[in-house]
Amino acid sequence: MQIRQLKVLLKGFSRYPLYFLIGGIISLFVIVLREFLERFISTTSTSGYSFSVMVAYGIGNLLSFILHSKITFYTPYKQTLKQKIKQLLAFAANCLLSLVLTVIFSVAIRQFLTLLFPSGSWINTLAFGSAAISTSMITYLLNKMIFRSPTP
Fold first, then answer.
1. Rounded distance, CA 51 to CA 103, Å?
2. CA pair distance 142, 14, nearest whole angstrom
3. Cα separation of 55 and 148, whole Å?
4. Against a cut of 0.90, is the pTM above it?
5. Long-range contacts from 32-41, C-beta under 8 angstroms, 24+ separation
6. Taking each helix axis from N to C terminus, what angle separates 16-37 and 46-67, rounded to the nearest 10 degrees?
7. What three-state secondary structure class fits 77?
8. pLDDT at site 5
9. Per-residue DSSP letters for 110-152?
10. Which of 40, 80, 106, 107 is positioned for an S-S bond with 131, CB 3.0–4.6 A?
11. Residue with the larger pLDDT of the pair 56 and 14
12. Cα–Cα distance for residue pair 7/65, rounded to 1 Å
């Protein structure tokens, strides 16, 4: 890879540290929320665990849309109602993709860790946290396209 190509690639991630910071804060909140939900939902089965991941992740994605649209990808450009709805629908599709990837990754990581550490009470937390973080680069690139300023 040439220097010029590397610069172009890195420029594409110029706001990623802010995205990662806000996403990290949201992720910590969502992990705590999933832990809280575990007190009310039996997570001994894969379906119960997956349900707790989906509920927590859904709430986290709502927070993500609000914070990233106001901070990370803020633009002073005034949007029409049609543009806002289109942006929200695109974000919702990205969230759905992110949710599916996070559930798949977290279940796979959970199963793998359970094989290595059959009695680890921390496995659910580590599996979910690792999966959520692993999807952040994919969702960043997609969100960057969703929140970009429209060309006049």
1. 9
2. 14
3. 28
4. no
5. 33/59, 33/60, 34/124, 34/125, 34/128, 35/125, 38/124
6. 140
7. coil
8. 63
9. HHHHHHH-TT-TTHHHHHHHHHHHHTHHHHHHHHHHHSSPPP-
10. 106
11. 56
12. 28
At 98, list the tokens.
Answer: 């992110």
Query: Is there a contact between 94 and 142 (Cβ–Cβ < 8 Å)?
Result: yes
Tell me the per-residue pLDDT of 47-62, one tens digit each, with 9 for 90 and over. Answer: 888 888 888 888 988 8
Q: Is 81 exposed, middle or buried (0-12, 13-18, 19+ CB in 10 A)?
A: exposed
Are 108 and 128 in contact by the 8 Å Cβ rule? The answer is no
Domain ranges, ordered by start, for the chain: 21-146
Q: Which two tokens stand for residue 118?
A: 């059959």
